Structures are given as C-alpha cells and as structure tokens.
Amino acid sequence: xxxxxxxxxxxxxxxxxxxxxxxxxxxxxxxxxxxxxxxxxxxxxxxxxxxxxxxxxxxxxxxxxxxxxxxxxxxxxxxxxxxxxxxxxxxxxxxx
Length: 96
Prior knowledge:
96 residues; alpha+beta; 4 helices
C-alpha cells in the first residue's frame, strides 16, 4: 500500500504538468518504471509515449480514436467504443 501511495504522489503531478500539452493515453503498469531507489524508496517514472496525443488538438476535435490496453480503459472509453463520441456528448459527466 505504501508503494501505491508513493506511485500516485509521484506520478499525479507529472501527469498534471503534462496535461496542457500532451495526453499519455496508455498509463498502465507496464509503462510505469522504477527509475531508482532514493532513501530506500522507489522513484517511479512514466515511459512509452507512443500513444500520446497533442492535448489541445485532442480537446478540439470530435475524435473517437481509442488506444491503449482496453483492460485499463475508463468507462467513458468503453462507451465511445460502443456508441461513438457524439453519443458521449449527451452524458457530460462521463467526458471528464
């Protein structure tokens, strides 16, 4: 549990800092690496930006392009996969 807290504490600011410019779109266990050990605690890093998209372009377009591992998709991605992006617009709470 302690490592899970460390992972979130370390990666959340990173994702927040990147979000105005880029969306990673594939944050999965295989893309989180232990970058090193500092004071006996793991230092996590995020790798594989192969599915990353320009955040501004992504927000502007009406894209239903999905990527990454479906096992880690949020409910909204599955909804888009099944019904399309246009239908998702009817459910604003799912778009976040």
